[in-house]
Specification:
Blueprint (H helix, E strand, L loop, with lengths): L30 E3 L5 E3 H13 L23 E3 L7 E3 H13 L15
Antiparallel strand pairs: 1-2, 3-4
The structure holds zinc ion (2 copies).
The site of one zinc ion (ZN) has 8 residues, from β4 and α2.
Length: 118
C-alpha cells in the first residue's frame, strides 16, 4: 500500500508500506508487491511462511474475503496479519513471494526453516 497522500508520480521507497504491518519499505526491509499495490515485507513474510508453510497453521478466510496479494478467493490456508485483520495472504502468495525474495541476491532474506529439518 502507499502512504496516504503519496504523490503517485513520485512515490519514494518510504512511501510504500507493508499491508500487513504498515511499516515502510527500507533497504533492510525487503518488500514484495502484489496486485493493485498491495505489499508484504520480509518480516511479515517470515512469520507467514513459518505459520502457514512450516507449521501448517492457518486462519481460514472469511466469507467473501480475498487474498490481498492476488485478489483471489482461494480455498486453502491463509495467513492473517495479527495487527490488521483485513490483511490476509494465501499460501500460494506466501510461497511465491518467499521465492522472489529468496532468489534475489541483493536481498538478505532467506526462507525460514522448520524446527525439524534444520
Ligand atoms: Zn510487514
Ligand atoms: Zn494470494
Amino acid at each position: 500500500m502507499q502512504r496516504e497522500g503519496t504523490d503517485h508520480e513520485q512515490a519514494r521507497m518510504e512511501d510504500i508500506l507493508c499491508d500487513f504491518c504498515h511499516k515502510p519499505w527500507t533497504m533492510e526491509r525487503a518488500m514484495v508487491e502484489g496486485h493493485r499495490g498491495s505489499c508484504v515485507c520480509g518480516d511479515c513474510l517470515t512469520i507467514a511462511y513459518l505459520e502457514v508453510v512450516i507449521h501448517k497453521a492457518s486462519d481460514p478466510p472469511r466469507e467473501g474475503e480475498q487474498c490481498i496479494m492476488c485478489l483471489e478467493e482461494r480455498d486453502e490456508a491463509h495467513w492473517r496479519s495479527p495487527a490488521f485483520e483485513e490483511a490476509v495472504i494465501c499460501k500460494r502468495c506466501v510461497k511465491q513471494s518467499a521465492g522472489v525474495l529468496h532468489k534475489d541476491r541483493d536481498i538478505a532474506w532467506t526462507k525460514p526453516v522448520g524446527d525439524t529439518d534444520g
